[in-house]
Amino acid sequence: MKPTLFVLAAGMGSRYGGLKQMDGLGPNGETIMDYSIYDAIKAGFGKIVFVIRTSFENDFNVAVVDKFKNLIETDIVFQEINKIPAGCTYNSEREKPWGTNHAVLMGKDVIHEPFAVINADDYYGQESFAVLADFLRSVENKKNEYCMIGYRVGNTLSESGAVSRGVCVVDENGLLKNVVERTHIEEKGGSINYLDEKGEEVNIPFNTPVSMNMWGFTPDYFEYSEIFFKKFLADEGQKLKSEFYIPLAVNNLIIQNKVTCKVLDTPSKWFGVTYADDRPQVVLKLNELVRRGIYPSKLFK
Fold first, then answer.
1. What is the pLDDT of residues 252-265, one digit of tens each?
2. How far is CA 250 from CA 26, 86, 141, 169, 212, in A?
3. 4-150+210-291 carries CATH number 1.10.443.10
């Protein structure tokens, strides 16, 4: 059975101000997500599942899904604020759903095989999808064996300003111990630094692995996440802006010694539009990848 790619796209409506403004950055108007799906198909993924909001289902089908439905099996699930386990409650004034791991939970009824999770609007690179697909094929019919693509921090920086990254703490076997959020990461004079809790600059090696929200899971992750989400809602459900993030759930499972999460190195350069000023650079980078023959000028004919 081929692995599934689960694309987190529920925030696209608000992030882009509507799907009609999905940014065409490639030479023929391709979005970053188009490149990810092209890479996933090439790496051997067998199905794409998108998690979106109900409010833009029709636009999403026309703008996105119709491009791929003759190339690979596709499915859509929906993330809404009221999609929570029976018996749980939340603050009625809350306006947005519960974050990335809540989005992942929406796939539990349609994904029954090892699966990858990515953001819709990040460029991850062909090597990353190949490494991820290989791992997911290796854990078919297994449980509790997860992975995360660990990008080298120096390959994830923005030329437009400082960034925040989830810095991975890894043991001697290459297994994730936890993810620590570091802020104000930037390169100065050939050295990469972040600001610690005291506001002091701390040097960080170029190859330090960081999380860019590219994960691999076996389907048991859904059951663990639902149990943890119930506890999360009991503790945090009345807060207006509490977030149920993937690293929160994975860290929790690692601490309890229930799962392992292998950190897989990739030489790929991550990029995205963190700042408005990043857009011209992303256009240049995609055009350069096309010029080098990594991608055809028109992805889907």
1. 999 999 999 999 99
2. 34, 23, 20, 13, 14
3. no
